[in-house]
Amino acid sequence: MKTLNWQRLISEKTKGTVWDGIDDEKIYKQLDLQELNGCFAASSSHKDEDTDTLYGTINRRPQQANITVIDPRRYQNCTIMLSKLKLSHKEIKQAMMSMDEKCKLPKDMIEQMLKFMPTKEELSQINDSVQKHGGSPTVLALADRYMFEISSIPRFEQRLRCLHIIRSFHDRVEALVPFIQVVLKATSSIQQNKRFRQILTIILAVGNYLNFGKRNGNAYGFEIASINKLSDVKNTLRNDRNLLHFVVQFIEKKYPDLTKFKKDLATVTEAARFSQSETAAEIRSLEESLLIVRKELNLLESSELPEHISLEGDRFGHVAKGFIEKATGEYHNLDKMFREMKNKFSECAKYFCYSPSGGNPIPEEFFSVINKFLITFNEYHHQLWVEVEEEEKIKRQTIARSFLAKKSTTRRKENHKERDFEQLISALQSGDIFKEELSRLRTSFRPKKSVKSS
User: Which comes out higher in pLDDT, residue 436 or 85?
Assistant: First the structure.
């Protein structure tokens, strides 16, 4: 028969509800079960069953492997997780005991498993159900059986949390390293870039000229955040142009090599996406993760907890020791690199007179200022290039039209002379050479007299 996918309630959940005391088996005597079976059979090849068999099918009997005390939604999600895991309860337990040295548990599934750690209430109800059925866990449904099995592992929740830390720690470190490195590279490149420094010099000169005799005039420099204010100064003659257009055009004409600074500062764009606060928080989280594993290992070695009984296949101590030795070195290297980055950037911010009103300078804000300038500079440079190309195109078209016009005039003159020559030949042949109206032809082909030198 086809399945009706509803959220099933167990007997304990129906007490005091609308379902309490309802006897649906009386309805079966009034139903046309043959019709129901025919209309909703899973396959047309199924043979008709007699009424007694149908009553036996629908009659509710104790299901020896279907007892669950878990919330229906939680049970469903846990079952889905286990189906994706594709491991038996025994294999899951062995993987946790061995700290998954064979990597049977994917990292993302370990994270999912942490969401389905049994609560004290759930374990109490599960154990009660097992005791009521002769102490055998085989009566439990899939998710309940999973929780029952892992609860037999010493400090199972802490162990699984440690396993998640061990399996993900290295990847978390490796994810942070490129971001820190790109800020270090961007900091170094912008401080050492002579082209960018020359562009700032040009901007200073232009700004001082505009501000001559004013309060902001005679400046020895400017805060780097002011670099994006050039676009606010509109061109009086052209509304679609501003001061940055002028600077870009000047650089293109007089210092074309300076336009290469955009490639020199390629790492600035990536550095602008860096978040110092998020990186610092993740580094603190890594340190806390190390402390969690170290604390659990210390508890095991001190044997202060009665749960820590030596069990067959238990590899927690061995794996945790090896992890702490390796991970501590990785953490210290990362923390050292992060502190170096902050120091280098602090020097860079001072070098460019960057002091935001909101507090201490941070890389993402500083490099966002530079990146905005790079983008705008590149955009205006492209606009001017297109404009120059259009002017050159018009100039070439004008020259081409002039050339073609001259060529056409010359060709018309040549054609006119050719027609005159043909008329002269015709006149000679016909004897009309002496006619007055052809005298022009004779004079037009008469050779010029050479002027004798005196």
Answer: 85
∠ CA 110-112-113, nearest 5°, is 65
Q: Confirm whether 399 is domain-assigned.
A: no
135 and 184, same structural domain?
A: no
* Domain presence at residue 36: yes
Enter the tokens of residue 102. 């064979």
Q: Is 207 exposed, middle or buried, given 0-12, 13-18 or 19+ CB atoms closer than 10 A?
A: buried
| Structural domain span for residue 315 | 155-193+275-355
Q: Is residue 46 part of a domain?
A: yes
SS3 59: coil
pLDDT in tens, 88-103: 988 999 999 999 888 8
CA of residue 178 relative to chain centroid, distance: 14
What is the per-residue pLDDT for 47? 44
| pLDDT of amino acid 380 | 92
The answer on 160 and 18 residing in a single domain is no
283 plus 176 within the same structural domain = yes
Q: With beta carbons less than 8 A apart as the criterion, state whether 141 and 265 touch.
A: no
Helix (H, G, I), strand (E, B) or coil at 242: strand
pTM over 0.85: no
CATH code, domain carrying 88: 1.20.58
The reply to whether 119 and 19 lie within a common domain is: no
Q: Model confidence over 44-56: pLDDT tens digits?
A: 444 444 444 333 4
Cα–Cα distance between 205 and 306 in angstroms, integer?
A: 78
The pLDDT of residue 48: 44
Residues 41 and 185 in one domain: no
What is d(CA 435, CA 179) in angstroms, rounded to the nearest whole number?
100
The span from the CA of 294 to the CA of 286, in Å, is 12
Domain identity same for 302 and 327:
yes
Per the structure, the count of domains in the chain is 3
Q: Which two tokens stand for residue 72?
A: 């229906």
Residue 164 and residue 107 share a domain: no
Give pLDDT tens digits for 310-338: 566 788 999 999 999 999 999 999 999 99
Report the helix count and the strand count for the chain, using DSSP H and E. Answer: 16, 0
CA 380/CA 247 separation, integer angstroms: 10
Instruction: Collapse the DSSP code of 30 into the 3-class scheme (helix H, G, I; strand E, B; otherwise coil) and give the result.
Output: coil
Q: Which of 355, 387, 412 is the last residue of a domain?
A: 355
**Same structural domain, 38 and 179:** no
Residue 140, beta-bridge partner list: 67
Instruction: Report the distance separating Cα 397 and Cα 376, nearest Å.
Output: 32
Q: Enumerate the β-bridge partners of residue 234.
A: 242
